[in-house]
Amino acid sequence: MAFLTIYPDVSAEQGDVVRDFDVIASRLGEIAVELEHWKAEQPLGKEASQEEVLEAYKDSIDMLNKRYGFKSIDVIGLNPDHPEKDTLRQKFLAEHTHADFEVRFFVEGCGLFYLHANDKVYTLLCEKGDLISVPANTTHWFDMGTSPYFKCIRFFTTPEGWVGNFTGSDIADRFPDFDTFTLSLS
User: What CATH number does residue 138 fall under?
Assistant: First the structure.
């Protein structure tokens, strides 16, 4: 289940911790980010292909596609053995925006979204079953950690799919990375 910490964007020293899902969804709603919890119960193998994941979650995908009319849908997933895990991690770690709104459905594992809005940084740990929708042009970044384990179905309203517009800011360097954040939860 999701876990949220809200920091002032100038410091990761004193974060406001939120654990209740409904309160998390409400706080994110204040910045127009939607969070829902969906069923993610389809058995997937560690090496499940994009086609297998899309077929397993066809009903959920169809429901979202009917609501938004997506033009492109794909699956991103990484495990600790992935040969390009470090390169892919670096790609998402830099603060960026998208002209498209970003919708992600976590069907396995977890990852940490950082949303930069209203002079705050919202760190949201998304886990299996979480569906997040980030409005277009919202500054954010994502970390999956040094030993990633997640699978997400990604939805796009543009045929190009994922296109990041990087801000050039170093803000991501000032906040706990995935490994540090999740270690603090234990």
Answer: 2.60.120.10
Phi, psi of 38, rounded to the nearest 5 degrees: -115, 165
Q: What tokens does 13 get?
A: 């020293």
pLDDT (tens digit, 9 = 90+) per residue, 25-38?
A: 999 999 999 999 99
- Residue 58: pLDDT above 70? yes
Q: Residue 183 domain-assigned? A: no
Q: What is the pTM of this model?
A: 0.92
Nearest CA to 171 out of 148, 147, 126, 141 is that of 141
**Whether the predicted pLDDT of 75 surpasses 90:** yes
Region 50-55: mean pLDDT is 94
5 close to 18: Cβ distance less than 8 angstroms: yes
Residues whose CB falls within 8 Å of the CB of residue 87, separated by 6 or more in sequence, listed in order:
none
Instruction: Check if the beta carbon of residue 61 is closer than 8 Å to that of residue 54.
Output: yes
Count of the separate structural domains present in the chain: 1
Find the domain containing 129 and state its range. Answer: 3-171
What proportion of the chain, given as a percentage, has pLDDT over 70? 99
Token pair for 9: 């964007």
And the tokens for 18? 């939120």
Q: Read off the DSSP letter of residue 111.
A: E
